[in-house]
Specification:
- Belongs to the short-chain dehydrogenases/reductases (SDR) family.
- One of its GO terms (biological process) is monocarboxylic acid metabolic process.
- GO terms for molecular function: oxidoreductase activity.
- The protein is of the alpha/beta class and 259 residues long.
- The chain folds into two domains: 204 residues, Rossmann fold (3-Layer(aba) Sandwich); 34 residues, no CATH class.
- The chain has eight helices and seven strands.
- Strand 5, helix 5 and strand 6 form a beta-alpha-beta unit.
- The longest helix has 29 residues.
């Protein structure tokens, strides 16, 4: 078994996933980055290069979390390369918008396939490999929208509520194994997923504002920085205290859960 610890992160090429990978790399971990993007794409290559400047090894793998064969190959390659998987962050996700009565089957299926079933598939392989070594931390990224309803986010809310249920079930199943699993539930985050016209329109509909650009939206609406979430993810993945609980939801909510 390698001496350096290893963190595997889905959706690792950019956004939250990139920030999580950098946090672990800066603190002595090697990292496995799984993403839909090709490792030779500009964004993915830039992430790998930034990680490597910390002295960490970065294994970049193109992976579709909706395909079992891709996920099986991802974990096999990670295990064969490093011989251990200490932390898995199930971060990959997508979002779409629409009132419940407007949604199509395809819209619903897309988000469920990635955000819920993809997280289950990530957790499945994380548990299989971590049980071999007798320890590990699994961190599922959900959302405050998985803790209350949000208009026009039925698909996302369904998926993220499901992630919380998955976490609690897996925590029960992994009792006594040395593996813990918890969920981080962030509110709105400054990531490329929010820097689209459709997201700005969603915020306008939600708040009654008339923002023209995501930059204007960021200036006026409270958003988390990705580093805020990475600090929590790293703490869950490494601290002694975070090894003392499992099946919990941690809300990074900017106070929204108290409103």
């Amino acid at each position: 078994m390698a001496e350096r610890k290893v963190a595997l992160i889905t959706g690792g090429a950019m956004g939250q996933g990139k920030a999580h990978a950098l946090k672990f790399a800066q603190n002595g971990f090697d990292v496995v980055l799984a993403d839909m993007q090709d490792p030779e794409s500009d964004a993915f290559r830039a992430t790998v290069q930034e990680i490597e400047t910390t002295g960490a090894k970065a294994l970049a793998i193109k992976c579709d979390i909706t395909k079992d064969e891709d996920m099986s190959a991802l974990f096999t390659q990670a295990w064969d390369t490093f011989g251990r998987i200490d932390v898995v962050v199930a971060n990959a996700g997508v979002i779409n918008f629409g009132y419940t009565w407007e949604l199509t089957d395809a819209q619903v299926q897309k988000v469920i396939d990635v955000d819920l079933i993809g997280t289950w598939r990530t957790d499945k392989y994380a548990a299989l490999y971590m049980r071999k070594q007798g320890f590990g931390r699994i961190i599922n990224i959900a959302s405050t929208s998985g803790m209350y309803g949000t208009p026009q986010l039925a698909t996302y809310c369904m998926a993220k509520w499901g992630v919380r249920g998955l976490t609690k079930t897996l925590a029960q199943e992994l009792k006594g194994t040395g593996i813990v699993v918890n969920t981080v539930c962030p509110t709105k985050v400054k990531t490329p997923m929010c820097e689209t016209d459709s997201y700005v329109q969603f915020i306008n509909d939600l708040t009654g504002n008339h923002y023209q650009t995501w930059q204007e939206m960021y200036d006026s609406v409270p958003f988390l920085d990705v580093e805020d979430i990475s600090d929590m993810v790293y703490w869950l993945g490494t601290s002694r205290a975070a090894g003392k609980f499992s099946g919990r939801d941690l809300g990074l909510d900017l106070g929204t859960l108290q409103q």
